[in-house]
Amino acid sequence: TPSPQLSPPPAMAPPHPIHSPAQNRVPAAPAGPGSDTYKGWLFKWTNYLKGYQRRWFVLSNGLLSYYRTQAEMAHTCRGTINLSTAHIDTEDSCNIVLSSGGRTYHLKASSEVERQRWVTALELAKAKAIRMRNNQSDDSGDEEPASQSDKSELHSTLKSLASKLEDLSTCNDLIAKHGAALQRSLSELENLKLPAESGEKIKAVNERATLFRITSNAMINACRDFLELAESHSRKWQRALQYEREQRIRLEETIEQLAKQHNSLEQACRGAPGLSSSSTAVSSTSKGEASDEDEETEYFDAMEDAPSTNQTGDKESTCKDVLPKKRRRTRIPDKPNYSLNLWSIMKNCIGKELSKIPMPVNFNEPLSMLQRLTEDLEYHELLDKAVKCESSTEQMCFVAAFSVSSYSTTVHRTAKPFNPLLGETYELDRLDELGFRSLCEQVSHHPPAAAHHVYSKQGWTLWQEITIASKFRGKYLSIMPLGAIHLEFHSSGNHYVWRKVTSTVHNIIVGKLWIDQSGDIEIVNHKSKDKCQLKFTPYSYFSRDVPRKVTGVVTDADGKAHYVMSGTWDENMECSKIVQSSHGSTSSEGKQKTVYQTLAPKVLWKKYPLPENAENMYFFSDLALTLNEPEERVAPTDSRLRPDQRLMENGKWDEANVEKQRLEEKQRAVRRRREAEAVEALEEGYIPLWFERKVDPLTGELICVYKGGYWEAKEKQDWDLCPDIF
């Protein structure tokens, strides 16, 4: 949107004329009878390159908002202007200009009639918004005056009304007195011998005077009736107000008692960690389940939610399992404001492998790549729900939503994670809290590769080996994760495999950094042969699609489509069950399109809101804030113990840069010594400690899989096999 000073030329027409009746003839109309909402298509001036662009406008509650498409109303508002302070102007037969607080919208309707409808709606909305603003300022005093004060105010008001009524009565008496005198004078005139024409006029005046007196008497009677009605209803209003206040006081007392009881129960449970499962259970809801409760009920199957509330057999969360868990941190030190010339570092690195570029911590975030890989588990509850699915195609929908959810943490995360040192590990043991435990190990340095294994007692296991290939292209940075992700469900034996898409960081040199995901994901169930094809649409400035859009179709072994997947990789994913499919028109590439008729969509995943002050904490999620939290009994190679990363988190960036150089030089020295000691080291490379290399029977690739031993070593605190890398 251009600055307010940059106005479009009055003669410029919309670059996209209305040519498709089916697409454009959506009249601006109220949402319902008596509604203040007004919606419709208008052309909005954007800039001199694109001119006027078609946008969907919504007028509601004194605010005018616009969107690129109607679908965007659910998640992305492009701009809003407050009409209570706006100036509405019309340039010609079709143009509307709105300006408020330095912001100006140049709008164009499809016709003069349409323009007039919008102007009328805007003027009415503006008048109402001004009234609401004034009323709010008038009512900005105490919300809860004392009851006695209310009575006094009401009595004073009624007394004032009675006084005014007395004034009206006095005026009525005067009107009656002077009216009677006027009628007598007119009667006397009638008795005089006047021409016939004058007599008729005097008679007409006499009749009008009589009507005037009758009307004034009726007005006084109506005022008296109003006062009596106000007196009678005031007692009802006062009783209703008093009742509502008493109810609120009782509610506040009840909430206070519940809070005290909850606190007592929590303390009691913490004081009795040995409670058995047969003891009284305190119901607890995981983060994912709480998110489900916030959704509209039609988006969720009752059979998924009912067991957690109606069947006692599923209530596994007891005081022992939930309340005594470790209290996790909710914030880290704010990011310091250090400036650095990026171009001075990057100008000699164009076309090189990013992992080979020595980078200061100024471009990092205080997490390692192993911890970022663990963040894929933020929405692990999707896999817990997938375990309960009876249909493999329905289960595929949850797996697909899980594969998309791993990108939601990247939308604001433009900083680079620390490259793990060879042999570095990271564990996340949340078996008691969340039902899973995760282990990562850096198994290769050039190219950098990390092996990851996750076991969940809910009934699934996930493993992957990801090699990061990245190239700096001058204006943007491409990050290509290589390697397959495996997911197996214990009870059904369903084994899913998929790969990640390409991540691109834009505006590396000039402008604000932003990240996009693009490419295709094919998820295959190697047992049932079900497939899901997901397409991550790359962002385009000229596209009318929803930004960060993801679409897909779930098919069975015969190629029959069962579900349509849709959403965005940064917000939510939903699935719609297909009830009928048919062939549609032919695309410009010559391919025939398929049209699906579906049931109402069901939301599978929705992103958690970021914590407060996230913009000053590297835009970390709630889970990310806990990943580098110090923990006891972890391996000496754990990322939490990496000194340069810890110094950076604490805001000591200069010390962190010195420590980072020391660790990297130490790693290079160890590699040179290993290569000098044995030729086998050159041939075999680094031998992972907790993983072993095997040929994947499904993909045919050499992959590192967990061989066991880590959690047993942790139990015994036997870390003799761990190398000294820090």
UniProtKB/TrEMBL annotation:
Entry similarity comment: Belongs to the OSBP family.
Full protein name: Oxysterol-binding protein
Membrane topology: Peripheral membrane protein
Organism annotation: Gopherus agassizii (Agassiz's desert tortoise)
Pfam families: Oxysterol_BP (PF01237), PH (PF00169)
Biased composition (Pro residues): 1-18
Coiled coil: 241-268
Keywords attached to this entry: Coiled coil, Lipid transport, Lipid-binding, Membrane, Phosphoprotein, Transport
Domain PH: 35-127
GO cellular component: cytosol; perinuclear endoplasmic reticulum; plasma membrane
Compartment list: Membrane
GO biological process: lipid transport
Cited InterPro entries: OSBP_sf (IPR037239), Oxysterol-bd (IPR000648), Oxysterol-bd_CS (IPR018494), PH-like_dom_sf (IPR011993), PH_domain (IPR001849)
One Gene Ontology term of the molecular function aspect: cholesterol binding
Superkingdom of origin: Eukaryota
Ranges annotated as biased composition (Low complexity): 276-286
